[in-house]
Amino acid sequence: SEGYVEELQGAVGPGFYIVVEKILEPRERLRDWPIAGTTGYDALTLLDGILVDRNAKGPFDRLYRVCTGRGEDFHEALRRAKLEILEISFASELEGLVSDAKRIADSDRRTRDATVNAIRTALSEIVAAFPVYRTYLTDRRAADAEDVEILQASVAEAKAKSRLPDSAVHDMIAGVLLDGAAAPSRPNRSLIARFRRRFQQLTGPVMAKSLEDTLFYREVRFLVLNEVGGDPAAFGIDLNAFYAAQQDRYERQKNALIATATHDTKRGEDARGRLLALSEMPEAWARLIETVERAVLERFSDRETIDSNDRYMLLQSLIGALPLEAIHSKPDPALIESFRERLRTYVQKALRESKRHTSWTNPDEAYEERARNFIALLLDPAGAPWAAIVPFAHDLSARGMLNGLTRTILKSTLPGVPDFYQGTEFWDFSLVDPDNRRPVDYAAREAAVSSGGDLADLIRSWPDGRIKQRLIAILLADRAKSPELYSDGTFEPLGLRGAEAARLVAFKRQRRDEALIVAVPRLLHRRLIELDFPLGESGWRDTRLAVPEGRWRNLLTGSAFISSGDVAASELLSDLPFAVARIGV
Asked: What distance in Å separates the CA atoms of residue 291 and residue 284, rounded to the nearest whole number?
């Protein structure tokens, strides 16, 4: 990868803008390559992470365990999924590696006793223990410290959980990969180079197939976290860790993409926004599940329905993707039927990817039909589940709207280059592909953006999506006016104090005499239950933001205010629950 981007830079000229679709796993850092950064999955994880109520982890763990009987350690589940996928999907690639390793082992009397079976087992265990997609070993130079650390940790974990009686074969493989002492003393360099290349070509696809295309459909405690580059085990991100990550992005890849939806995300960005709000409503979520499960018991025998884990997954998926027209008005039967067809396609993909009761290679169409019957039960307008789903989704969707607008503002103002997936200018409640590749109504979007509109008015009619599009238009226009502020401006969290300080994300961007402040809400569920929207003084109480002295103009409302060093949140957010302001403009 490094060699490729170096050649590419050499071919097109130094400093050419290149981003790579590199999936960074938790705590993995982007290598020091001649690129601007990644395509933005790491940014997506951060933006979603701060919208999770981390205090709800315990309730969600318990609810998932009670409802499904599952709750295995996520990393152990991933290790076991990798071992399974190696056997099912990558047997020939693994055998090629085993063959090379055996030839290498046979070249030295110290290692020639290693059997093919032992080598296969050790290799499988090392690949299964890999915490990232791949390393970047080459024959041109010594291994990077990051690669050495990854390989040593993977071998250590493999040895600790190995089925082999000793670790000699693991040590031999590590020695071959890292030129260690346990490697054969007179190696065939071309064979070792091929073994390293094949090993690194295997770990990435195994991770992708095991994590993205298997485990994300099996371990579904909180489905919204099951996204590429995410860490479902972490249950959100601490706000200070988020700020630290943004500072790091500014220093290391300030021109990388910030993605919130791609062709490969498991659900649309606003479906995720809605499900993120679910973390603030564990009690209500539990009551909805209880209603659904009671209806399942009344309608189906055990042989007529899918297992509890798949029901748990499909109910979350339906809640996230449910069209707003079905929530906020009496739904058109044609709309519900169209949604049912979308879910039928999703059901097949989700269940086959999980590989628990059906799969692409060994489909169980009877089980899939039972899943479609479960969906039909949920969407029956005369049924108890639908009567519970609609008010629940109505409540959830307003919080999801705020999450979506918060994320849109952050994406457009944080260090990096915002990336907008086709059609997401309006609300995006898509399911996984092919659902997220449906035709986009560009004419409707063109008409809406031409109509403009005041944000304070548009938020009152937020279901039509125009407020999201208008926000994007305002912020992209400001980026166009001051490109260097957004590309090079420093990042600094704003000081916050007061009772509701934890419910705000606030920071400053500055370049020379240009400055921008951003304040957006998060985790507002409890406050919105008690108060009308917008929150006003009673909502933000005594919360204040440390805003540099000067005259500021809110780009979102057009109103001006003067700061003498700090500003009341109730003043800054009096008309809208978010603010983006420029100094002296």
From this structure: 11
List, as one string, the DSSP characters of 123-160: HHHHHHT-SSS-----SSSPPPHHHHHHHHHHHHHHHH
pTM strictly above 0.90: yes
H/E run at residue 318: helix 308-321
pLDDT digits (tens, 9 = 90+) for 397-452: 989 999 999 999 999 999 999 999 999 999 999 999 999 999 999 999 999 988 87
Are the CB atoms for 97 and 203 separated by under 8 Å?
no
Q: Is 427 helix (H, G, I), strand (E, B) or coil?
A: coil
The Cα–Cα gap between 569 and 550 comes to 17
What six digits make up the tokens of 19? 């981003």
Burial of 69 (0-12, 13-18, 19+ CB in 10 A): exposed
Tokens of 569: 């949140």
What is the DSSP code (8-state) at residue 212?
I
Kindly state the DSSP code that residue 303 receives in the 8-state scheme: G
* Cα dist from 386 to 55, 326, 390, 440, whole Å: 29, 11, 6, 29
Burial (0-12, 13-18, 19+ Cβ within 10 Å), 302: exposed
Do 215 and 82 contact (CB within 8 A), yes or no? Answer: no
Helix, coil or strand: residue 326: helix
Hey, what are 415's tokens?
Answer: 């260090």
- Cα angle 132, 133, 135 (rounded to 5 degrees) comes to 85
H-assigned helices in 208-268: 239-252
